[in-house]
Amino acid sequence: MLNPNPSGHPGQRIEDTIMGILEENPNHAENLLQKIQESQIHHLEDSQIYSAILKVLTSLDICENESESIWKEIVENKNKLSHCMGRQVGFSVALIDYFTNINPKIKNPKIIDMKLFADTEKLILVDELTRLYNRRHFETALVREFKQSTRYNQNLTLLIIDIDDFKKINDTYGHTTGDEILTKVAKQITSCLRMEDTACRIGGEEFAVIFPQTNEEQAMIASEKLLEACRTIQLSGKSVTLSGGIVSYPEKVKTCEDMYDLADRALYTAKYSGKNQIVAYSNEKRSSLRFDANLELLFIMPDKTLKTISKNISVTGIAFDTEDDITLNESFDVKLRESDSHQEINAKIKVIRKEEVGVHKYLMGAEFLELSAEDQTKLSDLYTLHRYKSKMSTSVV
User: Fold this and answer.
1) pLDDT higher for 246 or 63?
2) b or e along 236-270 (b: 16 or more beta carbons within 10 Å of the residue's beta carbon)?
3) Distance (Å, rounded) from C-alpha 42 to C-alpha 9?
4) Which segments constitute the GGDEF domain (predicted)?
5) Cα 73 to the chain's mean position, in Å?
6) 340-366: per-residue pLDDT in tens?
7) In the chain, pLDDT over 70 holds for what percent of residues?
């Protein structure tokens, strides 16, 4: 792991480091590699650094296995031009000459101040409210870190977090207060991260944190600390809470494309199984939390309504017994009723498991196809209620 560097900030892009060095000393671009290595902010191979430098200077995507040789050719071109001119030629001039005449990758170069270009680029990559990176940068950073992890056989963990009941905060206190909460959460997230971690606001009240060189256990500890820090944010005397889901490479995921989806699935489980917690994605068949619940289950059909009792339920589906021979893969509109709380949940389900356990008796399993945000909240409340009942019953002697 890297040691934090006070001159940088968590998740600082190598492009930002390069820009900072060039602003301090714009006339010695050829020394950038040495300066970046001395900063100890980025733990990258020379080829990766050269590729990033060329990207900043030219906006060209030069592959890593060519970047170092191209850099040396540009330095050599600078020396040749200086010799021919009888005076020192700037690195930028040699760079333009190289990419327009020697290795013509740029047809019509346009000169623009690099800081002006970088400031414009930041407007595209940084969330204006929280000053965290936005979803556009998140997607690029995740691909980059995943490539790095696969190339060097390193761990990588993605955390997706969401502020609990944020819509209620906006509805109750107004969007100005909601924005203040978002800003405070972003600051707490940043305060908990290492230099190599990347935090992004990826939409609404949802944030993402990329943990390089971090396995699931380490990320879980870091994520819990992050949630604990956010609980110090108070609103009307109550703590602001977050829910999160994590997934780790190579423990639970094999492709970059799946990382966000699986972390988001774990977030869904955390959200609708009590909130205010971190859940690690599980690739087991039944990865969502289940609880025993004898709820009245009504199947709404065009010509009749079937009634039965559920056996258990999770945020993704429900199991129940029935004497009706329901067709596998058939979809139904249903109502779930809880006697104690008088909660009623409307949903659309699809039967995905069917087992005959006796004469005209079947054990069925169904997944939720449609469940509104309001009904998801009711389901979360039911889970919390039944978990509380379970704890109470086990404590009675």
Assistant:
1) 246
2) eeeebebbbbbbbbebbbeebeebbebbbbbbbbb
3) 11
4) 154-283
5) 39
6) 767 788 999 999 988 888 888 889 999
7) 88
* Per CATH, domain 135-280 is 3.30.70.270: yes
Q: What amino acid is encoded at 14 in this protein?
A: I
Examine domains 135-280 and 290-395 and report if their fold is the same: no
Neighbour tally for 61: CB within 10 Å? 9
d(C-alpha 16, C-alpha 367), whole Å:
46
CA 134, 136, 141, 143 torsion-angle sign: positive
Cα–Cα distance for residue pair 314/386, rounded to 1 Å: 12
Specify the pTM: 0.64
CA dist 288 and 282 (Å) reads: 8
User: Of 288, 372, 388, nearest to 336 (Cα)?
Assistant: 372
User: What number of helices (H) and strands (E) belong to the chain?
Assistant: 12, 14
Class of the CATH domain delimited by 290-395:
mainly beta
Distance CA 372, CA 367 (A): 14
Domain ranges in the chain are 14-125, 135-280, 290-395
**DSSP-assigned states of every residue in 66-93:** HHHHHHHHHHHHHHHHHHHHTSPPPHHH
Contact 49, 14 (CB under 8 A): yes
Is pLDDT of 371 > 80?
yes
Hey, what are 155's tokens?
């761990």
Cβ–Cβ under 8 Å, residues 227 and 278:
yes
- Each residue's pLDDT tens digit, 211-243: 999 999 999 999 999 999 999 999 999 999 999
Q: Is 187 exposed, middle or buried (0-12, 13-18, 19+ CB in 10 A)?
A: middle
Q: What is the mean pLDDT of the chain?
A: 85
Strand partners of residue 235: 238
CA distance 359 to 361: 5
If you average pLDDT over residues 62-79, what whole number do you get?
91
Cα distance from N-terminal residue to C-terminal residue, the chain = 49
Alpha-carbon distance values, 168 to 239, 256, 267 (Å): 14, 34, 19
